Amino acid sequence: MQTDTMPSAPQALLTPDLSWQQDALCAQAGPEFFFPAPGSSTREAKQLCGACEGRVACLEYALKHDERFGVWGGLSEKERIKLKRRRG
Fold first, then answer.
1. Which residue, 62, 58, 57, 51, is CA-closest to 84?
2. How far apart are CA 41 and CA 70, in angstroms?
């Protein structure tokens, strides 16, 4: 009996590369630091992101996965929306 099956895609294509998270500076701070209450400052989170080697990968992940809350890659929600619009 023959069945029509699609070849399985390599796992690397199905799961995002999250290796940048292992050494990310945000792993040493609590989530409330990057997901502050509405109206609270994001300055400290952005400063920490600015010193992180994984910042670019983090930002690209957030843009690709449409992360709508918190500071990712040094940008707030509004800043990421503006960046996406500029990129087209």
1. 62
2. 11
What is the C-alpha to C-alpha distance for residues 87 and 80, in angstroms, rounded to an integer? 10
Q: What is the pLDDT of residue 21?
A: 87
- Half-sphere exposure for 60 (CA within 13 Å, toward CB): 9
SS3 75: strand
**DSSP label of 70:** S
| Tens of pLDDT, residues 4-62 | 454 454 544 556 778 888 889 988 888 888 998 888 899 999 999 999 999 999 999 99
Q: What is the Cα–Cα distance from 23 to 28, expressed in whole angstroms?
A: 9
What global pTM score does this model have? 0.77
Q: What is the DSSP string of 3-53?
A: ---PPPPPHHHHS---GGGTT-GGGGS-HHHHSPPTT---HHHHHHHHT-T
